[in-house]
Amino acid sequence: MADVVIIGAGPAGIFAALELSRKSPGLDVLIVEQGRDITERSRSGRDMLVGWGGAGAYSDGKLTISTDVGGQLSTLLPEERLLSLLKEVDGIYAGYQSEGGVYEVTADDAARISAEARLAGLVYVPTRVRHIGTENCYTILKRMREELTGAVTMRFNTRALQIVASGGRVSGVRLDDGTVIDTGFVIAAPGRVGSSWMQEQAKAIGLEARPNPVDLGVRVELPAVVLEDLTKKAYETKFVSYSKTFDDRVRTFCMNPYGEVVRETLGDIVTVNGHSWANKKTGNTNFAILVSADFTEPFDDPIGYGESVARLANMLGKGVIVQRLGDLRAGRRTNPARLLKCVTQPTLKQATPGDLSFCLPYRILSDIMEMLSSLDRIAPGVNSAHTLLYGIEVKFYSNRVTLDPDLQSGLENLYVVGDGAGITRGLIQASCSGLVAARSVLGKLAP
């Protein structure tokens, strides 16, 4: 038995546990995590995404303090409350590690960038960003783990198979060893890796849910000097456009100045991502261009669609494919000889030179090419023949479960939080969602 079961030890689950343990030390809280403890994780394979800290453990620790990006909590919470939560979470992270610069553009710079963006057919989203750095992010999560040692029970290498319901309310969690944990409250924080699992649970329990778009695209890498005028002011610069050909929403995501491109493993799929260190720099900057693929009836499996595109890339490249933009425009494959001539030297050495046009759907590829052309008007050099594109980058989000402002589902005392719930898309809003759910639980338990 447990008073509260938290499924997943990513940022959402960790912040829920911190809040419960700090505000109600006598509460019996169990965290169930399918991966390993943080000291046992490594930067390879499945370990990159599961385990204590979730995918955030090896991210570069960007905390974007803005209600406009990083998730959809703004559709559930008043803007003032969400902004207060974002600042609170930022303060909690900063309390564990004093290092980490805060970047915020001045009003004059924001107005200039915004005007240039409009001329290029883009929308600029000003943000305030704290960059913790990959090595410091790991340290912070380790310190959070140490604080919770003895305060909550943790079970690693254990999968939650099923959320159990009885009489319209949650009653337990069935684990992969057959054990059923009886509990009055469940906070499901399965992370992006658990999006398919969450989708299955919602269907089995009968929760109202609707498909989220899948974000599909490429990781772009180029010399850091190309974007330096933007990144030295804002660190991460976010742009959104609606493509001329298909009117699809296209955005830049996860910009990493002087960073490196990395592989991610999602089950049997290899995808690509990027990060940057606080105290170590490469000569390149990388970022993602993502297209939101939204579907209408009768298709209702955007996750399956994204997986199939990624699998096709894996089949062609035996993993991640890298291609020079000039080769893509010329309709030819990048081969090892052409890659050696590239001005931009790849930071991901395990990528296979190839041709992304064989695996990216025409619609997605057209959107990406248009976005690169628009970005070049703001930062000349983005659309260079020597820009590198890595594929496939894909972000999965579970069908979005209908939730109330406390993030409680239609099943009483079942809370669904974080990226795997389809309501957040990043470190800071995921952490906020954990706080919201935990505070609702504490309110119900209060005498």
What's the gist of this structure?
By secondary structure, the chain is an alpha+beta fold. It is 31% helix and 26% strand.
**Approximate shape:** globular
Question: Which structural class fits the helix and strand makeup?
Answer: alpha+beta
Give the number of DSSP strands. Answer: 22
The value of Rg in angstroms is 21 Å
| Biggest sheet, spatial arrangement of strands | 5-13-14-17-12-20-18-19
Distance linking N and C termini: 21 Å
Count of helix runs? 11
Largest sheet: 8 strands, mixed
Helix content: 25-40%
Beta-strand residue percentage: 25-35%
Describe this structure in words.
31% of the residues lie in helices and 26% in strands. It is built from eleven helices and 22 strands. The chain has an eight-stranded mixed beta sheet. Helix 1 packs parallel to helix 4 and helix 3 packs across helix 10. The radius of gyration is 21 Å and the shape is globular. The mean pLDDT is 92.
